[in-house]
Write a structure and sequence with these properties.
Largest sheet: 7 strands, mixed
CATH superfamily of the domain at 258-389: Aspartate Aminotransferase, domain 1
CATH topology of the domain at 258-389: Aspartate Aminotransferase, domain 1
Radius of gyration: 22 Å
CATH class of the domain at 258-389: Alpha Beta
Oligomer: single chain
Order of helices and strands: HHHEHEHEHEHEHEEHHEHEHEEHEH
CATH architecture of the domain at 258-389: Alpha-Beta Complex
Strand order of the largest sheet: 1-7-6-5-4-2-3
Bound molecules: pyridoxal-5'-phosphate
Structural class: alpha/beta
Amino acid sequence: MSKNWQPATQLVHGGTLRSQFGEVSESIFLTQGFVYETSAAAEARFKGEDDGFIYARYGSPTNDMFEKRMCMLEGAEDARATASGMAAISAAILCQLKAGDHIVAARALFGSCRYIVETLAPKYGIGCTLVDGRDLANWEAAIRPNTKVMFLESPTNPTLEIVDIAGVAKLAKQIGAKLVVDNVFATPLFQKPLELGADVVCYSATKHIDGQGRSLGGVILSSKEWIDENLHDYFRHTGPAMSPFNAWLLLKGLETMPLRVRQQTENASRVADFLAEHKAVARVIYPGRADHPQADIIAKQMTGGSTLICFELKGGKEAAFAMQDALDIITISNNLGDAKSLITHPATTTHKNLTDEARAELGISPGTVRLSLGIEDGGDLLGDLEQALSKVKA
Ligand SMILES: *Cc1c(COP(=O)(O)O)cnc(C)c1O
């Protein structure tokens, strides 16, 4: 397998293991265990003298193909596929920490990620400081002698704020802490956190990697050394393994991901420009537009815009609900990265558990709407938004 392949080639061919039948499409190995020719072969496998499979909770052939394909795309040495994005993120953070350690995390996090660092970790004696991640000075000020992990997502959910990944990575290196990046919103095609200095990258494969709304999944990618020292035993013994069936679905998803993400990003860019000119819209936040407040950092660390747009309606919640309810093609759902365009009102759904103050800190107002663009025809989507916005009282 060539390291010089472009992503579109890696994602069709990378990591493929063929059985003796020479199948074209990857096989699904639905097996819990593996047999050994002899007792000595079993002994050798358990000693780690050959790298065959032992038990599906540790690893299995279809999952191995998915992990190798993701490693190739990400430029990582090793990976573990998990049952969901949250299984990936909770394992990546907790496997390397013990009571008395401290996490610094950006406060703009996917809700369940915020629960892991803000609520769960402290129950086990792991401290956490949440910061406004947009300013590197806040990260630096939050560092303590026992800080072991820094954690962020960029762009953030739902207001598409940006964190300077190379800047945070540099701070982490200075104190020997590890930087974990949740790269879901950027997709592995538009941002490479490991190249920017991060130590660990996580995905919810549920989003763009599946991309067709079928299965949950996740993946943790890092150096072989970090995985061997931190994740290897934790993963084997706590059991967040992905189902081989889902690994197969996600391998198929990876094959078409570049085509889908390209179409979604083209749609997002057109829709963002349309919304920015609309009289019912107070502001549009889109990483592909020159008026994004952090366009300078985006230019340094991202190679594409985003498949998501955040915008605010002048008429607040009433306008947001009226528009969402009038849409024909775009569907109300809190998922993202799907082939279908999906819209959500964060203040009453994904971010309803935050206090008004915490929502305001994140820039979520009653008129804020998050739109995940699908692969439909861009003109049809513009027409749908136009007719729905015409029903909003200005
Ligand atoms: C969806 C998502 C997760 C969680 O992934 P699941 O597959 O739903 O467990 C974590 N982080 C971000 C940014 C997400 O969008």
